[in-house]
Amino acid sequence: MTMSKMILVVFFLALSNVGDAHPNYGKALRKSVLFFQGQRSGRLPSDQKLTWRSDSAVNDGSSAGVDLSGGYYDAGDNVKFNFPMAFTTTMLAWSAMEFAKRMGDQLDNTREAIRWSTDYLIKSATQTKGRIYVGVGDGNADHSCWERPEDMDTPRTVYSISANSPGSDVAAEIAAALASASILFRKVDPVYSVKLLGVAADVMQFAMDHQGKYSDSIGCNYYCSYSGYKDELLWGAAWMFRATNNATYAKFLNSLDANDATDIFSWDNKFAGARVLLARKSLVDNIDSFNSFRTQAEEFICKIHPNSPSSTTKYTTGGLMFKLSHANLQYVTSISFLLFTYAKYMAHAKTSFECGSGVVMTQTTLRSLAKTQVDYILGRNPLKMSYMVGYGEKYPMKIHHRGSSLPSISIHPENINCQGGFQYYESGEVNPNILTGAVVGGPNENDAFADDRKNYAHSEPATYINAPLVGCLAYLVSSPGQ
Question: What would the 3-class secondary structure string for 216-265 be?
């Protein structure tokens, strides 16, 4: 056995004696999709399953004379940020596209979760000519309160971009969300699919014509565009090309100077995701002009895999990929999704690639690494703890989430004002409402986790943590041993 193979074996054996060999991926998938109901804003439908939630923010947009009700709260707060919401939507759509045949009855539920967002994004992009609405709610005011979304009394400030105040990043991400969703709805609702793609084309044109960072235009305290906007232009154009096969987008892709190397994939940095998506044209469609994206995608994977000599990725003693201390599991789920997806493309092409001399990456190599990450999240870790709320015997009970931590309206119909909720925030009691399926930020670099709602960096859930996990779980439902 070579030294490189020994390193890989030792890495995977690190998880061999913790937790169950194969978690119940089907159950985890159902819960992960259900989570999005707990994040809904607006008027809730009669079939709402997480019944501790009620209608909220139904008048969003009224201060600007438009209807911006609906969509999702991004995490444990009550603000709507279109930038991470659109990324969440794109990842849900991509998950369902790649692994639709493995999703079973969760495919329709996933489409429903996507539509809850795309209906809102369409409204954001079409109500005022020349203007795209990109968020609702004053983040600073909201974060100074601890109250249920149903009781909100903080300003529902409306933020927007225009030709004079550009935002290529958020506009291109909205285009990606709508374009990817249009593919998913093409057969089941062709009229809606056409509408999605039409709006996506308009928004993408805006992103290309009026280039700039949205956080420069509207100011930024939350979800700033740290990586700039070229990654979103690449990402948005990639999805438009996938949805339309229009050569205009291929030409635009080749014109972009977007060669930044990266070892991360997130709501902010889309380079790796775009390159994996575009590599499909090389691996699956055999189009040589896309080989450069394939090379970049493989360079990214070589920066991730622990057996690669060019790896820049840290792993905990327990085997968890560790990128950043704040909500690290968002990077784990998104990167794991890319590994599963690229492995699928490799399987189609019957190919492998090298990370340095003699270090061969196969589809099995990628899938094995991704599986260890998902298994860790579901309880195969040193603490034998699931980081998905409501899954397994041991999971976080005091998550940083306003609606979950406060008594529901059915139990406490009286208003709980801005400061009134802090008595629940400060208490050591478990949350009264189970936000089923929510995946929290996760453990620290030492595999340690404190179940404490005050520790938002580790105990707060977010839509963009769950969205790529849906695809990972869908793959594993039918391939638990791989």
Answer: HHHCCCCCCCCCCCHHHHHHHHHHHHHHHCCHHHHHHHHHCCCCCCCCCC
Core vs surface per residue 267-280: b (16+ CB within 10 A) or e: bbbbbbbbbbbbbb
Convert the pLDDT of each residue in 110-129 to its tens digit. Answer: 999 999 999 999 999 999 99
Rounded Cα distance between 110 and 95, Å, is 9
pLDDT, tens only, 468-482: 999 999 999 986 655
Half-sphere exposure of 259 (CA within 13 A, CB side): 5
Among 452, 406, 397, 459, smallest CA distance to 430 is for 397
Query: Residues in the chain, how many?
Result: 482
User: Considering the domain 1-38+275-394+435-482, what is its CATH architecture?
Assistant: Alpha/alpha barrel (1.50)
| Residue of 208, 129, 226, 120 lying closest to 166 (CA atoms) | 208
Give burial (CB, 10 Å; 0-12/13-18/19+) of 226. exposed
Residue 64's nearest CA partner among 136, 165, 150 is: 136
Q: What is the mean pLDDT of residues 21-44?
A: 95
What digits encode the pLDDT tens for the residues 157-208?
Answer: 999 999 999 999 999 999 999 999 999 999 999 999 999 999 999 999 999 9
321 bridge partner residues? 315
| Of the listed ranges 4-13, 37-46, 318-327, 404-413, the one predicted with least confidence | 4-13
Q: Give the closest residue to 447 by CA, choosing from 316, 350, 333, 284.
A: 316
Find out whether 409 and 54 touch, Cβ atoms under 8 Å.
Answer: yes
The fold of the 40-93+110-258+400-425 domain, in CATH, is: Glycosyltransferase (1.50.10)
Annotate 347-412 with DSSP letters as a single string: HHHT--EESSTT-EE-HHHHHHHHHHHHHHHTT-STT---SBTTSSSS--SS-S-HHHHS--TTT-
Q: Is 435 helix (H, G, I), strand (E, B) or coil?
A: coil
Q: What are phi and psi of 380, to 5 degrees?
A: -90, 75
Q: Which residues are catalytic?
A: 400, 451, 460
Contact (CB, 8 A) for 188 and 114? no
Residue 161's beta-bridge partner residues?
132
Tell me the pLDDT tens digit for each residue of 237-260. 999 999 999 999 999 999 998 888
- Intervals of CATH 1.50.10.10 along the chain: 1-38+275-394+435-482, 40-93+110-258+400-425
Tokens of 324: 């950043």
Of 344, 267, 271, nearest in space to 92 by CA? 267
Stretch (H or E) spanning 162 = strand 158-162
The angle that helices 247-255 and 230-244 make with each other, rounded to 10 degrees, is: 160
Asked if 141 and 155 touch (Cβ cutoff 8 Å), the reply is yes
